[in-house]
Amino acid sequence: MKGIHPIFHACFLVSAFACFLASAFDPSPLQDYCVAIDDPKNAVFVNGKFCKDPKLAVADDFFYSGLNKPGNTYNRVGSNVTTVNVDQIPGLNTLGISLVRIDYAPYGENPPHTHPRGTEILVVVQGTLYVGFVTSNPENRLITKILYPGDVFVFPIGLIHFQYNLGNTPAVAFAGLSSQNAGVITIANAVFGSNPPINPDVLTKAFQLDRNVVTHLQSLF
């Protein structure tokens, strides 16, 4: 793919890899496509979803522009995830695939999180990332790797995983997910920032922390 900008080359690679994962988790479509639509006036009911009449589908139903633009990483964790799923491209409905761009500030991280509905395959475009995931109980084994531009790493569906920028310069990665909407649960936000809050006594016992530490963490989220 000589002459193609590295960012778009990366997007192509991620999408190609994710295609191999797509059919395992989202239902297989029974038609060429099913463009999601909120108003059923011009829709047909297929595979349990309202879809735009295929005759009314247009190129923009399968299009998104903007992944060449860096995300704003000025936040507590120093990262930004730009998501391209069925909410941005309605033509992804029933196709079992989506894409994200992840920007990292120097020493920023995409904190520990899970995707309940999809496996993730990530390719680094810029910078050096320390990445990893933790296997399920009872082993809870940490599997990690340091990635450089062009390196690819897979995070299995449902497992807690993370990425951390080891460098003093920004980093960029792209990732494909095996779902049109893989979902995300950020562990710290879910545990300490739930609404309403989890009873501190539960978290004190679970994490073996002082109750004051737990309430302080809850106040941060």
UniProtKB/TrEMBL annotation:
It comes from the Eukaryota. Pfam families: Cupin_1. It is found in: Secreted, Extracellular space, Apoplast. CDD domains: cupin_OxOx. SUPFAM superfamilies: RmlC-like cupins. PROSITE patterns: GERMIN (PS00725), PROKAR_LIPOPROTEIN (PS51257). InterPro entries: Cupin_1, Germin, Germin_Mn-BS, RmlC-like_jellyroll, RmlC_Cupin_sf. Keywords: Apoplast, Disulfide bond, Glycoprotein, Manganese, Metal-binding, Secreted, Signal. Its main location: secreted. Residues 1-24 form the signal peptide. Residues 65-215 form the Cupin type-1 domain. Belongs to the germin family. This is Germin-like protein. It comes from Hibiscus sabdariffa (roselle).
